Every structure is written in C-alpha cells, then in structure tokens.
Amino acid sequence: VKWGYLLEGDRERVPLLHGNYSTCNNCLTKRYAYPVAIQGTRYSRRTGRKDTFNRMSTQATHSAHITVDDENLYLWGYKTNRIKMALTWIVTVLTLGTFRLLLYWYPKWWVKCTASECSLSTADCLLIRDAHMDVAFRPVLCMISDSVMQMGFPITGFQMTDVSTLRYFTFKKLIHLWYADEDRFISIDSLDVDIDFHQFHIMGEKGLSSVDVAKRLAVYGKNLIDINLKPLHVLLFREVVSPFYIFQLFSVAIWFSDHYEIYASVIVAMSLFSIAMDLYQTRKQERKLRSMVHSSAFVQVLRNGENPIKISSEELVPGDVILIPPNGCNMQCDAVLINGTVIVNESMLTGESVPVTKAALPDTDDESSIFSLDKHSRHTLFCGTQVLQTRYYAGKSVKAVVLRTAYTTLKGQLVRSIMYPKPVDLCFTRDLFKFIGFLGCIAFCGFSYTIVTMILRGASVREVIVRALDIVTVVVPPALPAAMSVGILASHMRLIRKDIYCISPSTINTCGAINVVCFDKTGTLTEDGLDFHSVCPVIHSNDKEPIFRHEFPSLNVKEMWNYRKLVEAVSTINGLLCGDPLDLILFKNTTWTLDETMNSRIEETARFDILAPPVVRSVLGACGCDREIELAILRQFTFSSSLQRMSVIVHDPEDESHDMTLYCKGAPEMISSLCKPSTVPVNYSNVVNDYAQHGYRLIAVAYKKLHISFPKSQRVENDLTLLGLVTMENRLKTHTVSVIRQLNKAHIRTVMVTGDNILTALSVARECGIIQPVKKAYIVECGNRDSPNSRIPLLLKQAASSSEDLLDDSSSVYDMESRSFIDPTYQLSVSGPTFEVISREYPELLLKFVTVCDVFARMSPEQKQMLVNKLQEVEYTVAMCGDGANDCAALKAAHAGISLSEAEASIAAPFTSRVPDIRCVPMIIREGRAALVTSFGIFKYMASCSLTQFISVILLYWLATNLTDFQFLFIDLFLVTTVAACFGYTPPCQKLAVSPPPTKLLSFASLLSVVGQLLIVFIFQLSIFIYTAAQPWFVPYSIPIGISLEDKRSMQGTAVFCLSSFQYLTLAVIYSRGPPYRKTIFSNTPICACLVILISICVWLTINPPYFVAKHMQYDPLPESGYRIFILVVALNYILCAYLYETGVIEYLVLTVREKWRKKHSVKTDADMLNKNEKILLSISSSPSWIPSATEGSSDHFGLYSFSNSSHIINCPLLQIVMCIA
C-alpha cells in the first residue's frame, strides 16, 4: 500500500512510503491534512477475493471524513426509504411505542430502519459520528433559487460563484456546505483561506454590494450567537424517556395493577420531584448562558461604495467593511484591520488585562503574503474583545474587513465548546449500568422460576404475568435513581452553606475521583497584578569594585539620578494611563507624568501621525534635582522574547552635550551579558538567585551614552553600565500555599495552566508548591529547525534548584517515603508555542508530556481545553479552577470545573465559589468523595435489599404464597426508603485521604462484599424458613379455594419477614462507611435516630405485636413467645456474622492486606493493574532522557527561576516613560 496525506483544501495527494516521515513533513503542517491509503491491494474477508484500488481520482462515495476545529467527523449518506419508514411505524404501533423508543436511544438504528445507503451527493440525511464516538442524525437541507444570480457559493477568499442550489447540513451550530466540484462537504469556517493581503484592501475601498450581501447572508446566516431555549415539553420528553424513568413507569404500572398503590404513589412523587428539579436546573443554565453570550449592537458599515450606513451587527457578513468608532466598542465579529491602529483589551481570550495594540494589515501582493489567522493575529480584532481606543491618520477612518461571523468567530468557538463539551465517562457510571444488567439477569432467572412454579400451582394467566413481572421490580429497584441522588443532594446543601454553588449536582460524585487539579494563575493562585517591592542599586566607584547597596522601598532615590532613567510601557487612553499593569505600578512609584504630544488640544485618537515625541516629566525636586526634568523619547526597541530585553533612546533638552542615552531593561542574565564586566558586582548571581528563590520577579536595568542617531538595537545594546535590580512581587493569595500543600499531601497532582509568561509562572509555581523543592525542574523549549524536512528540536533546560531552607518544615519522613514508587523525580514546564510544536510534530510524546509536566504557560483557551482532554485521555480525573473567560473551554471540558468568578467563567463551570480563592477546591473534593462513597453505599444497600427481598419472595413462592402488601410496604417505605434518605447526612472528613475512594463498582472488594453478605442473608433466611417448618406447633400454608393469592399469610412468611427486617437495617449500618472519606455513622444524627426507632419497632413486631398491628400487617403471629425471642437471637447472630465478614474479610484481608501485598509484589510485575498514566510514569519517572533531540542546559550561571519575572515585566506594547532607579 502507498500511503499519503489528503489535503482538504486543494485535494492534493502526496505519495508516502510507510514509515518515511520526512516525505510528508511539509504536508503535516497543513491544517486539514489526514492520512489516506492512495494505491494498493485489498483483501475482502466477505468474498475472499483480492482487487486493487486507486484513490487518486475523486469519486462520489457513501462516506466521508472532515475536520472541524481539529475534531474529526465521519459522515455516512442515506436516502429516506418510504417502505422502510412505513414498516418502522407499523412495528412501532404494534409494540405500543417500544420499538420507536429503542430507535430514539440508538440513532444509528433509526437511520438503518428508515433510510437506505447512498452517495453523499444524493443523500437527504446523514449519520454523523464525532471524535467522542457519539452518533447523531442530521437532515440535508436544500436552498433553491429561481435565479442563478440570487445565490452564491463561497470559494477561495472573498470570491463567490453563482449557483441555483445549495445543499447543507448543520452540526453543533456550524453550517457545512456541499461542494459539488469536489463531491464533499466543507465547513464555512474553513472558507477564509488563501486570501492575500491585497484582497483585504481591495474590499476596504468600496465594501460589498447589496447583491453580494444578500448572497452571503443566505450562506452564512445572521451574525448572531444566540442560545435558543428549548420548549419545556421537549426538555420534559428528553428527561422522561431515559431508561431509568421508563423502567420506573413500567414498575409503577405493575404495582398499580397489583393494588400496591401507596408505595407506587411515593415513587411517582419522588420521580416527579426529581424531574422538576432537573428541568429547573437545565432551563436556568440555558437562560444564564443566553444572557451572557448574546450580544448585538449597531455598527457603521461601508457598502456599495457610498457613505457609511448604520446597521445592526446581526446583518454583518464576511467581506463587509466596518468602521471602528474612535472611543471604542465591543467587537461583534472577527475582523482584519486594514487602516489605523487599535488598542484592544483581550482579557476574554488571554485572561490578562494588558491592552494590546493591533496594527493595520500591510497592503502587499507578494505570493507569500497570504493571510493566516494564527500568524497574523496582531492585525485581527476578535469577537468579544473590547476596543479601548483607535488612532488614525488625520482624515482617514479606522476600517476593518469582516472575516468571520456568528459561531465561526473565536467567541463562537468558545460558546460551542461550552454547549458541546466532551462527554464525561466515569468508571462508576459504566459499572452502574453493568451491575444493573447483572441484576436484570437475576431478575430473568426469577421471572422464569416464577412462571414455572405458578403454572405448576395452577394459577391464572393474569396472576402468572403479574407475579412474574413483579419479581423483576423486586430485583431491580425502581427507587434506585432517587436513592442515588441522596448523597449528592446532601453534599450540595453543605456546599451552598459554604458559598459554593453547583448548577450540575451530578458532577459532585465525579469530584470524588479527582486526582489532578489544574489552576489558572492570575486571580486564582495570585492576586490580580504585581506589587512593587524594592530597588537594589549598584554603586560604582573609580577605585573600587561595583557593589550592591541596600534595598530602597521607593523609586525616587536621590543617588539614582546619576544613573539616569528607564522608560516603561504605558500610554494614555481617554486621559488615563493604560498599559502593562506592572509598568503602571512602577510609573506611579516615580511620581513622573507622561505627555504624548506637545499640543494638548489635539484629540488622542488623531495623534497617530504627530511627529512630536512623547515626553516624560518629573516633579520639581524629584531625585534630589533642583529643576523639572524633561526627557523626550526618540526611539524604542520593543520587547523581544528571543532577546529577553527592550530598550529606549531618550534625550534631555537641558543636556549641554546633546547626547542621547540608551536605557535597557530585561532578564538579569541577559542584561549582565551586555554590560561591561567592570560594572557588574562579583556577587551578582548570588543576589539574583537569592531574590528569585524567595519568589520575587526581577528586572535588571542598564544604560549607555550614545553619539549616533537611530541605530539598530543590536549595534548599541552592548558595553552597558549596570544600574541595578528592580524587584516586584506577585503576591499569592492568603490560602494558596496551604491548599496546594494539602492537595500534595493527599497525592492529588497540581498543575498550573496560565496565559502568563513561563518564567513568571515557574516562580509562582515554586513559591506555592506546585514545583516541589525535592525535585529537579526543567523547561522544555523549541530550537531552530535544522532543515526543511526535519522536526523542530526540543531543548531541555534545568532550572535552579531550591536551597534546603526552602523545604516545607511540615514535610515529614513519612510524607516522603509514602510517595508512590512511580512518582517522577523531576517536573517539566512548557509554554503554549512549545506545546503546539509537540502536538503537531511529536504526537507520540504528547501524552508523556501531559503526564509529567506541571506548568503550562502562554496557553490559549483552545490549548487549555486540549490539555484537559489529554489529561483525561491518560485516565486522570481532572478538575479545572479558573476565573476568566479564557478558562471557559477548559472549565467545561474538565470533569469538574470550578469558577472563582460569577461572570463568563460561571457559564461553563458546574461549580462557582463566591469566596474568590482556592479554598473551595479541597472542600469540593471532600464533598465529592463523601458523595461518591455515599453513592457506592446506597447502591450496594439498595441492591442488597432488593436481593434480600428477592430471596424472601423466592422462598415463599415455593409455597405459592408471598409477603403481604403491608409487609412489602413496611419494608420498602419505612425500612429501606427512610434509611436510604438519611445516608447522605454523614459529613466528610476534614482531612483529605492520601488516595481517592474507589470508582469501580465492579471491583473485587465490592463484588465480594455484596455476594458474601447475600450469601449470609440466604443462609440465615433459609435456616429460619426450614426451622420454622420443623416446629411442633407449625401449621403449613394451604392455598385458598379459587387459587387466589389475596390471602398470603403464613407462619414461615412471618418468620422470614421478622428476620429480614433486621437484615435490612444491618446492611444499612454496614454500607454506611465512615473514615477515611466520611465521619463515623454517629455523626449522622438522622440515620442514627432512624435506626434506633426502626430497630425498636422491629423488636416490638417480633416479640409482642398488638392484635390490630398484626391484623394490618397481615401475618400469622407465631404462637410460641420463646420462638419469637429465638428469632431475635438468630438476628443478633446474623448481625455479628455480617459485621465480622465486612470488617475482617473485606476491609482487613481484601482492602488492607491484599492491597499492601499487591503494591509490594504485583505492581512491578503486572502492568495490567495500572491505569494509563501510571504506565507512562513507570516508563519515564526516573529522568527526562525520553525526550528526543533534547539538549540539557545547566543553570550554573543564574538558573531560569531567577528570571521568572523578567520577560513578563518587560513586555512593553506601546510607548515609554521614565523610571528613576537608585
């Protein structure tokens, strides 16, 4: 077979021999490339024949594969078959709707039963399977125009070709058009490719015509991100037709037909309440999401080459030319700036509040000037971002060409990720259905047994059917869904009392299995912004070595003026200073002022082409000077991440030499390398390391006199004179360190996922404990590609190690020794661009990176979501904690999203904390563990009670009798339901246990516990059943005349009922598990009160029931009081056996001894017992040598943590201001 890569953009096929990576490397960089077999021989297992195939030619096929937002969709074409459709509805009617219900649960069956396979070109419906293996059915719609000129199909760029028919389907809010020339569907979000720069400027001259707007509006639809509220009857239908509620409906129907109305009514009431609460939560979430994402405004647009007109933003289409107002606006679409400059707040995308400057797209028509959204984001205004201000050349408007609208925009992609998250597949849920299937098998056996025995007894047909179906409702408890929510509701109420709100209570159970927590940095782990700490100047002397002076808490230090000033990155917007928050803090500490033009009467928005340079002025007496200092900013060399520095050239008009001065700031190691060695103190590296290890962010500053004008920065940034160090601190929130320490002790992995700079993130991670002092830390970076066909090499740099005094004093020898043997001895950190390279060029290593990497910096919202998905792929249960709109996708994708904000992030997160710190995380995990253990206990309790009742019924069916209706009612309503309702009131333990509770319901310990307890129940019930019949006073049960089972009283039934009553209560105590996840059962006041009352009633009913009680309970009283006491003795023996079995066999032998032996012996030899992330850690935990082409750098000079603040601090987007340093 010859393999190649199919490029969806141009249908190019590149032949590729198997295993030859370099042949297709260029092809892999394409956005829509996927592997296909091009030519070869295939073997048919159906016919046994061989034939050849050639896919170099395009042919209409039944199936296809498309990629949308890096998600693979598989399509199959079908055409509605009227005969199949008619037969399907006939069968539906004959089965009273059961067949249609099955087809609703399985959409693939519906398509197979109502349509026939056909090519995609003729299909009127599609079967779609997404990357999560979810299957959906979508109709193919068709728009037909009377005239060819009235409708168009978008092709390359902004061009459209006239067509009379458009075929399309909609999936997850995106429209996919049928492209007849290539016989395939294409998504409308992939149409903005191959547009050169010049095309944008051509579009910007006159705008679209009215005809073009109508054509595009028909294809793209309205520019509106709107969440349609589903009708209540639709929500109700979707809720009611779930398998659990259908089974409840079946059970209730059986009970009502059997005159068991009271308990059936209770189940109906509980189900209606549960359905109502689910509907309320769903509608509440829909309304909240709709109110937060819906946005519309009036915009000025250029059309038909005429004057601008004002229209609703909903009428915008790709290709429209919009005018950006001078005083800013909220962007309603993605647009490319073609004129002027715009200052934008992109906090919705990045989480950082630093204003970003967007420049106009250059007007070039080179072959290489093809627009790419990823490469040219600095020219793109994104939907949902806030335009703070525009600046333009006099007489020219700030114009932008609409690129994407509605759900194809960046904001639309974020909303779609919230609406259609990756389905959460918890092992507990899967095992729950498997166990119910197992109960169904037992029910089938009981069903068969009942039919046989009832027929042999000569019962009527109706009696046989009712009794056989009733045994099914006994084995599979219909009250299970309501009972399973008890622990969740109790935990939910406790969280509300702690100001933690949950819009999806079912997620609480999932939180019990969390073993990884991802944290955003700014606003989550740290306060919003940095604080100035101090300045440490260097004192130079002609006859002495330069030395550091002591710290100064202010920037206005008299000695500093001898070393001039440094200019920072701020600008003015509407008269207010704006820029990097750090630079604003520094500037406020200088008491200087900024003037961006000498003529204050000129509007700010028109200062784009003013030639007068910005000026900074000091107040009189600042820095010990007797005059007002004024510096003109002549030139700036903006920050470069590769150079790790920025610089400015300033001029003092009062300077008699008329020289200029270069001021440079940047990473300490970079600045020191550019300084004259004679100006750098000998203890420079020690001072830098000392500051960095205490969590401070550093910038080094230096200067140099210039005698030339406007040189390149590389030619002048040398032979500098070091001025000193400025220290800043990004204060951690008060409870951050204690919470991280608590999670680490519980062996819950903590990961930082931030949009901030990697060096800043590393320092914060080290300070709060995410990067642990006992481990080596490395940064993974990208190198330069050696050749066009090679992969970008990865560089591994080791960070500075922590000193011993930074180790946590509370860490004990036990804590260190109790760590898992597969816990890695090192930690990695990567930035967003490196993460993208690894995803694209090292996909085989991606899962290893996400398993061992604990700091992810400069991550975009899409990358955050991808990281969460990959962590889930290696079988982690992930929680995400953040506070910004840029965290929404990750919050929704995580198993449990926790928002510290009530704004955008709360839309996507199931949990919202009104206390804006991470103390809520361990609270939620503790409540989740308590709820999960409660759910386990309730399920095992309900299943055991059902099987206990099943044993009682099967024994009595042998006599052609049964428990009476009031005995059933007493057991079902008072014993089982009342106790189950109190299960969840046991609060969680205050301390997080080292390991999470088990999530496998079908684990060896769980199954052994249930089976063993049921065996004990069966032995005791069978014993009392036989022993009662052997008593001299025993009167056998006789079938009433008429073969009626209305009179079901029997002595054996009374004995079994009395004994089983104690068995139900004993099972409640056994399965109400306490530490280490919950407190003891004695802390649960409601269940203790219930048990005391119910045990007293059971003793009373067994020893001496009053006549009226025995009459209503409908059982034959046992004549011998001594035998009734004997039943109590048997019950006590049962309680003792059941308790000893659970504590001695299950908890000690299985859970303690067996687990210790397994960890000591089995794990090293049996890898099948490990999950996916443990297997990966087992293979890479010792060292990072598994990273290919990685060159390890040392930190002998300063250590990367020493510069953790630098590149963030010096990221200066616009202009410069003076900073005095001593």
From TrEMBL:
<feature type="transmembrane region" description="Helical">
    <location>
        <begin position="1082"/>
        <end position="1103"/>
    </location>
</feature>
<dbReference type="InterPro" id="IPR059000">
    <property type="entry name" value="ATPase_P-type_domA"/>
</dbReference>
<dbReference type="InterPro" id="IPR023214">
    <property type="entry name" value="HAD_sf"/>
</dbReference>
<dbReference type="Pfam" id="PF00122">
    <property type="entry name" value="E1-E2_ATPase"/>
</dbReference>
<dbReference type="InterPro" id="IPR023299">
    <property type="entry name" value="ATPase_P-typ_cyto_dom_N"/>
</dbReference>
<keyword id="KW-1278">Translocase</keyword>
<feature type="transmembrane region" description="Helical">
    <location>
        <begin position="1007"/>
        <end position="1030"/>
    </location>
</feature>
<keyword id="KW-0597">Phosphoprotein</keyword>
<protein>
    <recommendedName>
        <fullName>Cation-transporting ATPase</fullName>
        <ecNumber>7.2.2.-</ecNumber>
    </recommendedName>
</protein>
<dbReference type="GO" id="GO:0016020">
    <property type="term" value="C:membrane"/>
</dbReference>
<keyword id="KW-0067">ATP-binding</keyword>
<dbReference type="GO" id="GO:0005524">
    <property type="term" value="F:ATP binding"/>
</dbReference>
<feature type="transmembrane region" description="Helical">
    <location>
        <begin position="938"/>
        <end position="960"/>
    </location>
</feature>
<dbReference type="InterPro" id="IPR036412">
    <property type="entry name" value="HAD-like_sf"/>
</dbReference>
<dbReference type="GO" id="GO:0016887">
    <property type="term" value="F:ATP hydrolysis activity"/>
</dbReference>
<dbReference type="InterPro" id="IPR044492">
    <property type="entry name" value="P_typ_ATPase_HD_dom"/>
</dbReference>
<keyword id="KW-0472">Membrane</keyword>
<dbReference type="GO" id="GO:0019829">
    <property type="term" value="F:ATPase-coupled monoatomic cation transmembrane transporter activity"/>
</dbReference>
<keyword id="KW-0479">Metal-binding</keyword>
<comment type="similarity">
    <text>Belongs to the cation transport ATPase (P-type) (TC 3.A.3) family. Type V subfamily.</text>
</comment>
<keyword id="KW-0812">Transmembrane</keyword>
<feature type="transmembrane region" description="Helical">
    <location>
        <begin position="468"/>
        <end position="490"/>
    </location>
</feature>
<dbReference type="InterPro" id="IPR018303">
    <property type="entry name" value="ATPase_P-typ_P_site"/>
</dbReference>
<feature type="domain" description="Cation-transporting P-type ATPase N-terminal">
    <location>
        <begin position="200"/>
        <end position="255"/>
    </location>
</feature>
<dbReference type="GO" id="GO:0015203">
    <property type="term" value="F:polyamine transmembrane transporter activity"/>
</dbReference>
<feature type="transmembrane region" description="Helical">
    <location>
        <begin position="262"/>
        <end position="280"/>
    </location>
</feature>
<feature type="transmembrane region" description="Helical">
    <location>
        <begin position="1123"/>
        <end position="1151"/>
    </location>
</feature>
<dbReference type="InterPro" id="IPR006544">
    <property type="entry name" value="P-type_TPase_V"/>
</dbReference>
<feature type="transmembrane region" description="Helical">
    <location>
        <begin position="235"/>
        <end position="256"/>
    </location>
</feature>
<keyword id="KW-0547">Nucleotide-binding</keyword>
<keyword id="KW-0460">Magnesium</keyword>
<dbReference type="InterPro" id="IPR023298">
    <property type="entry name" value="ATPase_P-typ_TM_dom_sf"/>
</dbReference>
<feature type="transmembrane region" description="Helical">
    <location>
        <begin position="1050"/>
        <end position="1070"/>
    </location>
</feature>
<dbReference type="InterPro" id="IPR047819">
    <property type="entry name" value="P5A-ATPase_N"/>
</dbReference>
<dbReference type="Pfam" id="PF00690">
    <property type="entry name" value="Cation_ATPase_N"/>
</dbReference>
<dbReference type="InterPro" id="IPR004014">
    <property type="entry name" value="ATPase_P-typ_cation-transptr_N"/>
</dbReference>
<dbReference type="Pfam" id="PF12409">
    <property type="entry name" value="P5-ATPase"/>
</dbReference>
<feature type="domain" description="P-type ATPase A">
    <location>
        <begin position="297"/>
        <end position="418"/>
    </location>
</feature>
<feature type="transmembrane region" description="Helical">
    <location>
        <begin position="86"/>
        <end position="106"/>
    </location>
</feature>
<dbReference type="GO" id="GO:0015662">
    <property type="term" value="F:P-type ion transporter activity"/>
</dbReference>
<feature type="transmembrane region" description="Helical">
    <location>
        <begin position="432"/>
        <end position="456"/>
    </location>
</feature>
<dbReference type="GO" id="GO:0046872">
    <property type="term" value="F:metal ion binding"/>
</dbReference>
